[in-house]
Every structure is written in C-alpha cells, then in structure tokens.
Amino acid sequence: MLFVFIALWTVASIVWLSDPGSAVNRRLGALAFSGGAGALAALLDLSWLPYAIEQGAGQSVQLLLYRLQAFSSVFSYYFVPYFFLLFAISYRSIRLKRGLALSLPWILLIPIVLCTLFTPPYNTMHPITFTIVVWWAVPYIAAGAYLVLSKRVPPAAMARTHWMVCFAVLPPVLFAMAMNYILPSLGMLRMWVYNTWIVGLGTLVFVLGLFTYGFMGIRILIDRKRYDSTLRAVTSGTAMLNHAIKNDAGKLRLFGEKMKRYAIQTEQEELLADVEAVLSASRHMEEMVARVHKRTEDLTLRPERADLAEAVEEALRALEPSLGAVELQVFMKRGWLCSFDRAQTAEAVTNIAMNAIEAMNRQGKLTVALTETKRELILEIADTGPGMDRTLRMNAFDPFYTTKRTGHNFGLGLPYALHVMRKHKGTLHMRSKKGEGTTFYLSFPKLALQAEYEHTRTEERMR
Predict the structure, then answer these.
(1) What chemistry does it catalyse, as a reaction equation (predicted)?
(2) Range of 447's domain?
(3) Are residues 196 and 280 both part of a single domain?
(4) Which of 30, 64, 77, 345 could form a disulfide bond with 83, CB atoms 3.0-4.6 angstroms apart?
C-alpha cells in the first residue's frame, strides 16, 4: 500500500501543479488524492498504528493515528466516486447553465452528507455502510465512465491522449468500484487489498503518457515551458545581436559610402566593386538578423472580425505559384465569423503549407479542411510527403531546428505557428509517421475567438 499511496499522491501533485486553473485537472487531482487517502488509511491500519503500539506510543499518539485512519478511510470511500463524476463532467465538456454548474457539486454531495449523518460511525471492519453507499457510489462511477468514454475527440493526434486518459483512469476506478463497493456490500470485506496492481498499471500508463503523447496536456505544458525558455533566450539574444549589428552596419555604411565616393571620384573601378560587395554584405547581415528577430519576438495580436475560412483560403491562393505539381484540395465551411489576427494566422498557415509543399518536393497532395466540434474550430493541413520519424517529431517545434540546408531557412516556421496559436488561446498538434505523410491540427477555441456562425453567408466550397 505504500506504493499506492506514493503513486497516487504523486500523480495528484503533478496534475494539480501542471495547470491549477483547469477544472478538469483540479478534479482529476482530487480523485487521485482521494484514492491515496484510502492507501494512507490502509498503511495506518496494517503498519503504522501497530508499529506505534509495539513501540509503546502513548494513548494520545495512538488515538491521533486512529482518527487519521478513520478520516482517511471514510474520505476515500465517499469522495472517490464524487470526484470521479465531477472529473468526467468537466472532461466531457458538458455545457451547463451557470446556476446548475455552480450548484451541481453541492447537489452531488447530498448522498455523502446523508450517509455521514445517518449511518453508523467508522470501525475497522465496516468503515462505511456498504449496503447503502453502493446505491449511489456505483451509479456515480458508472455515469462518470460513460461520460469519459463518450467524449468526442476527432483528430487522431488528440485521440491518442484521450485513450491515455481512459487507460490510466478508468481501469483503476472501475476495479475499485467492484472491490470497494459492490463486493463489500455482498459481505466480502477488505477486498481493497487487491487494488495495488491495477493502480500500478494506471500509474504506469500515466508515466508513459507524460513521455509520449501527453496526459491531460501535461506533456504539452512541459514542452511549452521548454519552448518558452528557449524562445526567451533566442529573443533576447537576437535583440542584442540585431542592435549590435545595426550599429556596426551603420558604421560600415558610413565609411563604405565615403570610400564609394572616393572610388568614383578617382575612377577606381576595382575599389568601387569591392566597396559595393562590402555594403551588400552589411545589408544582408542586417536583413538576416532582423528576419530572425521578427519571428522570435513576442507577438501582439491585432484581432479583427472576419470569416476564418476566407482568411485561410486567401493565404492558400497566395501559395499557388509555389505549388508546382502539388494537388491542392480545400474543404472549407464558410460562415464562421471570428475575432482573430488575420495576418498572423495567414502567416502561420503559410508556414505550415510551405513546409508541406517542400517536403513533398512540389508533387503530391495537400489537403486543407476546416471542421468543427462543440467547442473548437479545427483547421487540418495534411500532406502526402515522406512523414517524420520520432526524432523529427520530437524536435519539430524547437526554434532553429531544421533539416533544410537552404540559406534562407532558420527553422522558425513551426515555432512561429505554435506561437500564433497560443496567442489565440488555441493549440497546434501534429501527427506524422515515416512514409505516411504529416498532418497538422490548428484548434481555435470558439469562446476565445467569439466565433459566431452566419447562416446567410454559409456555403460549402470544394476545390
């Protein structure tokens, strides 16, 4: 039980600290904490309290440990179903009216309050009245499991994280439903001792999720922190470099123009050519550093009210001269008026699309589609290129990481697109496999963009 206690409270801490503002994370952390409280009660019952008695601890210490055991046990039995159902409601993204959303957690507490007031108090063999608690605990867990499994997650990249959550959370909770409520209500007590292995399995899936596809956005958060620190270093570095080169380039231009006038006056053609080369090199240095700095500096959004589909189509039309033999297929549903930075969004789409065109060597198929879910507008950009192996996928969003060897590519296209999406409170996901192409999912939250659907302007366009 020591492993279960440490594992569950560690999971609770990670989930809470990763995004304390998220209701989903808060409730999932509370669920793990409640399960850990049950493991703490078992440790007190089986190990710590007997050890304290064996060591001759005073009555006050023994009483304190016993009360802690009783509280932890009852808290776990009552609140595992409660927090699991609340987590499922948040995870399923069920829209509730404000009054119901505020009152629902209190309504769901009613069975717990009634059981606390009107059932016999705790004892080591019957910590709760199983024959009564089972009638509300099992429905809570069953309803929560249904809500989690019925969550609609369209893009494959997000579906992987969803199934990570399902495999990490549902087996331990459903197993506990049988061992902690159903079987004890039938007279088979202390079945909780068998929970250790299934909790270990859930913890293993959780850890794997952290290092693969992510778990409740935690891997994304880790990546974001690494990305933020890298971008801050790059931004400050390029700002200083830009400033220094501007000063030195200004001196080069000043003296270069002076030497140029002298070369013209004295008709020294060879010197004039050398001076022109120096001036051109100084301008090129300034331009390169300015381009890098522009891509890494903090973005200031200038939102305007526009049709998201129209803005994307406009960006794609500008790419037509670069398509070559690429077949462009566009599936756009017009009518979604949103408040967003049209220029920055178009640039992000252009960066991703150009990466796809170049990856396919300007031959293949590029598909761009705009779909919707209950809460998001999802722009999907898919190519039939060579795809990426695991190393490329893991480093694709790192500033200055590039496999291209052209002098004008700095590896800032995808970091810039990610930066733009984050500024819009959205996300950028990627799915890629070697030999199977690459797909990017730009997810815009409807609420953040104040998206409204205009039926009168709606049309389905396919090109």
Answers:
(1) ATP + protein L-histidine = ADP + protein N-phospho-L-histidine
(2) 304-462
(3) no
(4) 30
